[in-house]
Write a structure and sequence with these properties.
disordered C terminus; 22 helices; alpha+beta; seven-stranded mixed beta sheet; five-stranded antiparallel beta sheet
Length: about 775
């Protein structure tokens, strides 16, 4: 059964495919037009019939008209023509009426169709908007973030369901500015300031701050707000999201902790790989990081199977052993260690398998056959393979040997210094008494010869004592700024006569040589001792080269010689082409009394003295030698910027230096004190003697007369010489002071240097030298101790 045609079908049937009215509809409309025009036609016919009746009654003839239509020639009466005209007019009127009706109906239907389309479009838009709204609500509520929307002025009018679930609030509580109730009161002012600034500037908002949840706890959220603009570009509202980043922060903190733990394990000389299940991308990144650590580690790293066959090795390990990676992989541990270490491989593997960690020192053999020492650390990895870290400790062992040598030299030096100090007091008495005896005895007196023998023996002993003090770095130096060219030139004159004609002497001095600060006499002694040592190493002749030039010791040099401070130095080199030395001899070359010469041809103190002088001058000395290749001693003295001072020669001590002044003598050695007192009183001085510093201070306080000079030992029991001089200077201003000591373990010359303003005389001193120093201080020395 067919239903009633729909409105769309009814309207559609009126028009054909070209948009014109169909034939049936046209006939219907035409009939309607005829019906409307029929009354007019009837009226016209009635009118014509009335005219014919009138003519018939009156008998008047009808008027005729000729009409030419093409080739047709018609003669029509007035009545017929009138009827025809009326008919035509009626038809035309009907057509006009019909067209008017059709046009009007068509407009009516078009308007209705347009209204229908508008209504349908509006309903479709409403349905789409409703669907979009529903989709937006569904999407917003499904998002893990807290979402909300606000007006242009910041008034929040909508939140998604996630917001209410997290905060435990209701829409009524959150409307407008109610969101402030879930913010941390301490952070809220900063949030408001930023939020209002973004509203004013129409810029996006982004900030991290805590929000309180339904459980009352605050959690950190990353908040982002974007402006929503209309078609004109003006901000019409805001859309914001709050993302909980608690888990992200915990993850970042955990990653930092793991990274710190890994760095700590590497610093503790172990490589531990922890198996962690991660996502594929995280595993790839972790593997690349561990591979880079393995490949670029400065220590050698190897991975071996449980039987100690190598599966992998890093570049440092390959360089250390001289193998390529392919050559090293597949070798056994026994292939790269010395023969004596092979029996230890089994026990080491047992330790690793039972205790997990192993640490020991092994001797390895390189591909070229050379041997080196290494520190080995090994552990078992989770997969059952072995991980080993090998560190070349050749340089460390060399430095340890240098340290042991330095400590040994220091201990021997302290012993030698203490012995030399006591000898100086005894030698002072021996030399002083022998000098006095020789002055009093005639040259032909039988005892004069014996006194001279005593003086010569004492002088030899004093020289030996000075060498001991030089080695122990406890001798008194009088340093000054030097131009080493002058020292080398002075020594060259002596060396030409000293080394003999069968040795060729070459001196190379850089023209612009830097200045150094040292005792000129001691540096000259260093040159002479090294030259004599080189001469003795070339009994058949050879070449001796002395070179002085400027050098910069950089970090790489300091790394090999850790006692050195990087910077500018003047290098003094004494090189020979003699017999050279092996490693064992070099390790003891600076020991006192060590010599390779025949018995009776050397004291063994020459190089020990050189070592002590160089060290006390703040420098360094190293020896480079190979058996049969000669030796080179290199002395490095720090550069100074001051202008060099002229080097003075030794002054004579002959002559008479008596006087009549009053002395205060403080000396703890009774025999030396007695000898000095007798000599000084013999040349006219008056002497007050004291055995200790406190005794001398009491004598200075109690003596009523004038004391012109204090002669005091530096090292005494109780009060020291410098302290005594300071206290006496307070009660007797203007008193002159002369210090004397057998070595420099005192406050005046703590670092081996002597203040030029302080008078000093080294023990053992000769009586005439002491008298000369006294006269010099009393007459021309201007230095007072305040």
């Amino acid at each position: 059964m067919q239903g009633r045609p729909r409105r769309e079908e009814k309207v559609g049937c009126e028009l054909n495919s070209n948009g014109h009215m169909s034939g049936e509809r046209f006939v219907a409309r035409f009939k309607l037009a005829i019906a409307l025009a029929a009354p007019f036609c009837a009226a016209a016919l009635g009118y014509l019939m009335g005219i014919r009746q009138t003519q018939a009654t009156t008998g008047a003839p009808q008027k005729t008209y000729e009409v030419n239509i093409g080739r047709m020639h018609l003669v029509l009466s007035a009545s017929v023509l009138g009827v025809t005209v009326m008919f035509v007019l009626t038809v035309l009127l009907s057509i006009v009426i019909l067209l008017t009706i059709v046009a009007r109906r068509r407009r009516t239907r078009a308007d209705a169709a347009n209204r229908t389309l508008e209504m349908e479009s509006k309903r479709a838009e409403e349905r789409f908007a409703a669907a979009s709204e529903a989709q937006f609500q569904t999407l917003a509520n499904a998002m893990p973030q807290l979402c909300w929307m606000a007006r242009a002025d910041g008034w929040i009018f909508w939140y998604n369901q996630r917001w209410y679930e997290y905060t435990g609030t209701t829409p009524a509580q959150m409307d407008g500015w109610g969101w402030q109730s879930v913010h941390d009161p301490e952070v809220l002012p900063k949030v408001l300031e930023r939020w209002k600034g973004c509203i004013a500037s129409a810029k996006p908002f982004e900030m991290i701050f805590p929000l309180r949840g339904s459980d009352g706890e605050f959690h950190p959220f990353l908040t982002r707000v974007m402006p929503v603009c209309d078609q004109s570009g003006k901000v019409s509202g805001w859309f914001g999201t709050n993302t909980d980043i608690s888990e992200q922060l915990r993850t970042e903190e955990e990653l930092r902790r793991l990274n710190d733990e890994l760095e700590k394990r590497v610093a503790e000389r172990t490589v531990e790989l922890e198996a962690r299940k991660r996502a594929e991308e995280a595993r790839r990144v972790s593997e690349e990081r561990h591979r880079a650590l393995f490949e670029y580690a400065p220590d050698g790293i190897v991975i071996a199977d449980p039987q100690s066959y190598y599966l992998d090795a890093n570049s440092s390990m390959c360089r250390m052993l001289g193998y390529t990676h392919d050559e090293l992989v597949g070798l056994h541990a026994s292939d790269i260690v010395v023969q004596d270490e092979i029996p230890q491989i089994g026990p080491a593997l047992s330790v690793i398998k039972t205790k997990s960690d192993y640490h020991g020192e092994w001797q390895f053999r390189r591909k070229d056959g050379s041997v080196f020492s290494a520190d080995v650390m090994a552990t078992m990895m989770p997969d059952g393979n072995l991980l080993g870290v090998i560190r070349d400790i050749t340089e460390r062992k060399k430095m340890e040997e240098q340290l042991r040598m330095s400590q040994r030299m220091e201990a021997i030096g302290r012993l030698a210094g203490g012995v030399a100090h006591d000898f100086n007091n005894l030698l002072g008495v021996i030399l002083g008494c022998s000098d006095v005896m020789l002055d009093e005895l005639a040259a032909n007196h039988p005892a004069a010869k014996r006194a001279e023998m005593i003086r010569k023996a004492g002088t030899s002993a004093a020289d030996l004592t000075r060498q001991l003090l030089a080695f122990s770095r406890q001798q008194m130096l009088q340093p000054q700024v030097l131009d080493l060219k002058q020292i080398v030139e002075r020594a060259q004159v002596l060396l030409t006569r000293l080394i003999g004609e069968n040795i060729e002497l070459t001196v190379l001095v850089e023209p612009s040589l830097w200045n150094v600060k040292a005792d000129p006499g001691q540096i000259e002694q260093v040159l002479l001792n090294l030259a004599v040592n080189a001469r003795d190493a070339m009994p058949q002749g050879g070449r001796l080269t002395i070179e002085a030039r400027n050098v910069e010791l950089d970090a790489s040099y300091v790394k090999e010689h850790q006692q050195v401070i990087a910077g500018p130095y003047v290098m003094l080199v004494v090189e020979d082409t003699g017999s050279g030395m092996d490693h064992e001899t070099q390790s003891r070359i600076f020991d006192p009394f060590f010599t390779t010469k025949e018995v009776g041809k050397g004291t063994g103190l020459g190089l020990a003295t050189v070592y002590g002088i160089v060290k006390q001058s703040g420098g360094h000395i190293w020896v480079y030698s190979e058996p049969g290749q000669g030796s080179a001693f290199k002395v490095y003295l720090p550069r100074v910027e001051n202008e060099a001072q002229p080097v003075k020669g030794d002054e004579p001590v002959e002559g008479t230096f008596g006087g009549a002044e009053m002395f205060l003598l403080a000396e703890d050695s009774a025999s030396l004190r007695e000898m000095v007192k007798d000599y000084l009183e013999g040349v006219g001085y008056t002497v007050l003697e004291a055995a200790t510093g406190s005794d001398a201070l009491d004598r200075a306080k109690s003596f009523a007369g004038t004391i012109q000079l204090l002669l005091t030992d530096v090292v005494m029991p109780g009060m020291s010489g410098p302290e005594l001089a300071r206290q006496i200077g307070c009660i007797r201003p203007g008193i002159k002071v002369i210090f004397t000591s057998g070595y420099t373990d005192d406050a005046v010359a703590r670092h081996g240097g002597l203040d030029p303003a302080i008078a000093f005389i080294q023990k053992p001193y000769r009586p005439k030298a002491l008298a000369r120093k006294i006269r010099e201080v009393l007459e021309v020395h201007a230095g007072n101790v305040k």
